[in-house]
Amino acid sequence: MVSAFIMTKKIKRLSLPIRHPLSWSLRVWMWLFVIVVSAAAGASIGAFFGYLQKLSPVEKMENYNPAQQTRVYDWTGDKQIASYSQKREFVPQSKIPDRLKKAFIAIEDERFYEHCGVDPWSIGRIVSTFLTTGRRQGASTLTMQLARDVVLGNSKKTITRKIQEVFAAVHIEQRYSKDQILEFYLNQFFAGSNSYGVQAAAKTYFGKEINDLTVAECATLAALPQRPSVVNPFANPGATEKRRNKALGNMKRLSFIDEDTYNRAMAEPLVTTSRTLSTSEENPYFMSLVRSALSFDKDLRSNILYHGGYQVYTTMNPTWQKIVEEEVAKGLPEVEKQWQERKTGRLEWEQRSLLKKKGTLEPQKGQVRLAKILEVRDNGVMVQLEGYKAFAEFRREWVMPPEDPADPEKKRQAARTGDYIKPWLNPNLVLKRGQLIDVLVKSVEPTKHTIDIVVYDDAHIQAAAVLLDVHTGNIVAISGGSNYSTPKELNRAISAYRQPGSSFKPLLYATAMQHGRTPATIIKDEQPFEINGFKVKNYDNELLEGATLIYALKESDNVVTVKLFSELGMKTVLPSYRKFNIMGAAGREKPWTLNPELSLCLGSLSVTPLSIAAAYLPLARNDGIVIEPTCIQRITDLNNQSNIELPTPKRNIVLSPESAYLTTRMLREVVKTGTGKEVGKEFSEDKYPEMAGKTGTTNNCVDAWFVGYTPDLVLAVWTGMDNNTWM
Q1: Alpha helices of 453-603 — where are they, by DSSP H?
Q2: Which of 204, 316, 626, 713 is the least buried, fewest Cβ under 10 Å from its Cβ?
Q3: How far apart are CA 477 and CA 194, in angstroms?
């Protein structure tokens, strides 16, 4: 019995669940894991809410400081020459018409007065639409858009930003009434065309005050916030009208307007006012220079112009600026005429060459030939080529109308309709009957005696000019071409790198003066001259027994110049050239490429008009000091109080005053009796100004220069073609 009892007890004991020896420790670890996760979650939530406090919609919105207008003035500080701003005009919500408010609510957030910043119904609808159709829709309420644009700074679209947007929107709703939120939204949203808010948008697109807008126009403005770059009355009226109609449909569905009002609004055509630039620039090339100068300083950049509300005082002299622009505009047609007239000599050479190579003058496909102009029309010319008569159309290019900024969509429309597409030159100013013009032969049918050709002249002669104040180095006037048509137009005065030809020679002669030579130093002339495999001869092949340096510079003698360069040596001349290149030394443009070749002294490198003008400053100043040119005197803040610190212009001592003086004496002879005498031919001997300078041309007259100066001004002028063809 006892044994049976003991066995029964043992069996019962064995039938009980056996505990694993680690079970208690596992429980402990599980509880620790739960505690840690909970703590981490709590800390994360706490940190997130702490972050939300840092967002501070009250501070962000109540201290909201949108971009202010920046004004740009001339050198006196009295005349405003340009202004930059975002178009904004605040209107209190009490003065915003109900129909305009309802239009925005209907298309952007129809449950605006019901949700707390985030609309769960809209989110559910969007999720359902995505799951059933795969189409994505936006779920941002007006408050969320406000949070994104003002509180969060319209940062990159990410999930994190969307979560921040949601919490910020709720925070805003807690601090402001619905009417306050709507007022803020309607005054700050981006409407395209540099306009912000309903009032600015109404004036930009319709030329009206908001109280004068029709229901259809209110719906048009409400259509803009979603994608103002695409839905834009100027650039894409079709897309704008489509979204406007959607806004009107929503207004009708929500009973904001009745059936009759809806029908009238739908029938109303989308009519906008003429488009205007967001900047006001009387002197676009000079302002291009100002923008370029600001871009070199990382603390300034172009934000100074477009967002800062600053007063920028430039070095521009309006009188000189006007003269420079007028002279460039007046001189280019004359140069174009001369270029056309010089083609007669080319025709004789072309015919001899064709007879020698082809044995015939018969036009062939792919040839570029000179044809005789029979008639000049607006879009092309009627020409004759070796017995064939045909019409050759001008190459046509986009030309921006004065009232329109460059716009890709507008350009595409113009390409389809032909609007704003103009010939590359003004035919009636340049081309005359009987002149010659280059044409490209596309096809020839000898049996039918027909020919298909187009005008091959694909560029016209351009020019650039820079005028510097000798005493300060300030840029007082500049022109970068014949027509500034778009903000991206090439400013050749600062961006065109061209060979200076003989206008570069004075820097070598100045270096020679610095190293013991004088204007009377004689160097033997040899024709042709060869050194180290480099052959050089003068343009007129004139041979002199010996030439003084003053005579050699006056007549632009290549042989004497190369021999002088060789005598001085690369180790002497190249460092001197680098000192003259103050623009490169200051980092304002890429340094001159000074290849150690004899052709360098003849101007085979590439320079900008601004850099070569600056290089002449040590000569004009008569003290041998080169100064970095500048176009900005000072910049002050919105209240015209504190000055923004600008980099100090660099200075280099290049020459002794004596060397500068001797070089100037030689360059005066250049313009009185030498290659530059055309410049001073209008002055009588007794009234001849203290003027000095040097001409320069490159092979085949691809580039033509004059760089000269008086005791007060340095002028550099370049003419040529952008495609580097002959003039």
Answers
A1: 492-495, 505-514, 549-554, 558-568, 570-580, 582-585
A2: 713
A3: 29
Residues in the chain: 727
* Measured distance CA(701)–CA(654) in Å, rounded: 31
- pLDDT score, position 284: 86
* DSSP state at residue 308: B
Sign for the CA dihedral angle at 91, 92, 97, 100 comes to positive
User: Phi and psi dihedrals of 258, rounded to 5?
Assistant: -90, 180
Q: How far is CA 290 from the centre of its chain?
A: 12
Token representation of residue 106: 């209907």
**Pair 423, 398: CB distance under 8 Å:** no
- State the chain's mean pLDDT as an integer: 80
How far is the C-alpha of 453 from the C-alpha of 440, rounded, in Å?
Answer: 5
Task: Kindly state the tokens that stand for 103.
Answer: 């239009």
CA distance 588 to 215: 53
CA distances to 224, 313, 465, 474 from 82, rounded to whole Å, are 29, 11, 21, 19
Residue among 114, 118, 272, 104 at smallest CA distance from 188: 104
Residue type, 502: S
pLDDT at 178: 92
Query: pTM (2 decimals)?
Result: 0.66
* Beta-carbon contacts of residue 10 (< 8 Å; ≥ 6 apart): none
Can you tell me whether residue 289 is helix, strand or coil?
helix
Distances (CA, A) of 482 to 194, 334, 424, 707, 717: 28, 13, 12, 19, 13
Dihedral sign computed on CA atoms, order 439, 441, 446, 447 = negative
Distance (Å) of CA 145 to CA 149, 238, 295: 6, 25, 32
What backbone torsions phi and psi does residue 427 show, to the nearest 5 degrees? -55, -40
- Taken in order 300, 303, 307, 310, the sign of the CA dihedral is positive
Helix axes 237-253, 215-222, angle to 10 degrees: 110
Cβ neighbours of residue 645 under 8 Å, at least 6 residues apart? none
Q: Residues 6 or more apart from 630 whose CB is under 8 A from it?
A: 293, 315, 473, 474, 475, 649
Give the C-alpha separation, 315 to 545, whole Å: 49
Question: For every residue of 201-231, which 3-state class applies, written as one string?
Answer: HHHHHHCCCHHHCCHHHHHHHHCCCCCCCCC
Cis amide leading into 528 (omega within 30): yes
**Other CB atoms within 10 A of residue 10 CB:** 10
Residue 375's DSSP bridge partners are 382
**DSSP single-letter state for residue 692:** E
User: Which residues of the chain, if any, have pLDDT below 50?
Assistant: 1-24, 26-29, 31-33, 52, 55-56, 58, 130, 277-280, 397-408, 410-425, 486-487
Cβ(316)–Cβ(286) below 8 Å: yes
The C-alpha torsion from 652 through 658 and 659 to 662, rounded to 10°, is 140
Give yes or no for a contact between 462 and 722, defined as CB atoms under 8 angstroms apart. yes
- What are the strands, taking DSSP E only, across 618-711? 625-627, 632-636, 643-644, 651-653, 692-697, 703-709
Q: Which residues pair with residue 398 across a beta bridge?
A: 421
* Burial grade of 626 (CB within 10 A; 0-12, 13-18, 19 or more): buried
Which two structure tokens, joined as six digits, stand for 120? 């769960």
State the chain's maximal CA–CA distance in angstroms.
154
Alpha helix stretches (DSSP H) within 518-656 = 549-554, 558-568, 570-580, 582-585, 609-615, 617-621
Under 8 Å between Cβ of 444 and 365: yes
Give 436's DSSP letter.
E
